[in-house]
């Protein structure tokens, strides 16, 4: 059985003696580290359960973005509060450290304040991504007292993005910006890294998300792999020349490894099905949120728990098998990249396949 201690400044240390490693998580700063015992390797997956969960609490959104992979609309449904509490209860029992709440636009869930309060009360840190709409004073107060961080989705012409960042940072809320990088937007990304706009001055980090071929409309020609500025972008984003703190989603990892000299200790391969899990608003479970429109998933019902799915799902196991396979042959980055994305081969931007 794991043992957990709470140290100074909310540092949570969990020892998995039988698995030969420990995790260190700071509930307030978001710092996380997985450290193997002397002479042992970092685990390939966490048998006790996911460390992070991605939960779609609503498919409601009034923005109507064509690239939305959930195709969220004003007619989208909300996860029932009782269902959410069940998910969090099971997550806490598995030792999940934090959840990423998404949608749709999660903060427009009618029970959002209670969702944040309940999550923190159960010892799990809530984070969420917002387009900025519906951020009432009450929601901002609940965010400040419960959340580790909030990510603001950046949309041109960026007026709404700038106002949302201001409202969050004025309350001392740790704020990141999610920027979808593709063949066209990479020009803006490079410009921001060299000359950040004024509204970015108080953000914690700029997180780049690789454009996925999914959503209401799929624009194959927009994929980042079609840009002749890939090398310039990845090298700048991982260099001291970048004037913003930078992060990447797992779908950018192949480009970071193959096109830069960034330390592999600072970049993680995809965790889907290994250390993370996704639950949709209709209580269907997948290894990755982007699989929700591509496969049936596993239903979380009265006969099935999250831990059952984590251990017994063929779908979840297929992701682990993919990451452990030798799909990319003798590539020198195999150990750290783990073959890239299991869902979209188009996101592998290393140039090796």
UniProtKB/TrEMBL annotation:
Can the keyword Methyltransferase be found in this entry's annotation? no
Q: Which residues cross the membrane?
A: none
The UniProt entry, under CDD domains, shows: Radical_SAM (cd01335)
Q: Does the keyword Transcription regulation apply?
A: no
Residues in Radical SAM core domain copies: 47-249
Name the UniProt key words of this record, in alphabetical order.
Answer: Iron, Iron-sulfur, Metal-binding, S-adenosyl-L-methionine
Enumerate the Gene3D superfamilies for this protein.
Aldolase class I (3.20.20.70)
Q: What InterPro entries does the database record attribute to this sequence?
A: 4Fe4S-binding_SPASM_dom, Aldolase_TIM, Radical_SAM_PqqE_MftC-like, rSAM, rSAM_sf
Q: Which domain of life is it from?
A: Bacteria
Q: Which GO terms describe its molecular function?
A: catalytic activity; iron-sulfur cluster binding; metal ion binding
Read off the PROSITE patterns from this record: RADICAL_SAM
Cofactor(s) needed for function? [4Fe-4S] cluster
- One short Pfam name that applies is Radical_SAM
What PANTHER family does UniProt report for this protein, alphabetically? PQQA PEPTIDE CYCLASE (PTHR11228:SF7), RADICAL SAM DOMAIN PROTEIN (PTHR11228)
Q: What is the protein named?
A: Radical SAM/SPASM domain-containing protein
């Amino acid at each position: 059985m794991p043992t957990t201690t709470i140290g100074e400044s909310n540092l949570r240390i969990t020892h998995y003696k039988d698995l030969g490693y420990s995790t260190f998580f700071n509930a307030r700063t978001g710092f996380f580290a997985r450290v193997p015992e002397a002479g042992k390797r970092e685990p390939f997956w966490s048998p006790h359960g996911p460390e992070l969960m991605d939960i779609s609490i609503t498919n409601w959104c009034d923005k109507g973005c064509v690239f939305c992979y959930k195709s969220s609309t004003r007619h989208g449904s909300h996860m029932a509060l009782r269902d959410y509490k069940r998910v969090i209860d099971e997550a806490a029992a598995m030792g999940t450290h934090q959840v990423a709440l998404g949608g749709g636009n999660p903060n427009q869930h009618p029970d959002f304040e209670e969702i944040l309060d309940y999550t923190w009360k159960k010892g799990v840190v809530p984070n969420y991504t917002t387009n900025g709409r519906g951020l009432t004073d009450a929601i901002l107060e609940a965010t400040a007292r419960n959340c580790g961080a909030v990510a603001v989705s950046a949309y041109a012409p960026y007026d709404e993005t700038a106002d949302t960042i201001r409202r969050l940072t004025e309350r001392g809320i740790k704020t990141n910006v999610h920027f979808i990088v593709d063949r066209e937007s990479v020009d803006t990304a490079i410009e921001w890294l060299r000359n950040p706009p004024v509204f970015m001055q108080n953000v914690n980090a700029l997180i780049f998300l690789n454009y996925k071929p999914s959503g209401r409309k799929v624009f194959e020609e927009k994929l980042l792999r079609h840009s002749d500025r890939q090398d310039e972008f990845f090298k700048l984003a991982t260099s001291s020349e970048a004037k913003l703190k930078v992060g990447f989603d797992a779908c950018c990892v192949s480009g970071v490894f193959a096109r830069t000299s960034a330390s592999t200790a600072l970049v993680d391969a995809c965790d889907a099905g290994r250390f993370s899990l996704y639950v949709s608003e209709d209580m269907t479970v997948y290894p990755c949120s982007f699989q929700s429109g591509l496969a049936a998933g596993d239903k979380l019902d009265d006969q099935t728990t999250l831990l059952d799915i984590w251990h017994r799902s063929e779908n979840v196991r297929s992701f682990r098998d993919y990451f452990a396979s030798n799909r990319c042959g003798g590539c020198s980055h195999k150990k750290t990249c783990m073959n890239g994305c299991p869902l979209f081969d188009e996101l592998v931007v290393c140039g090796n396949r």
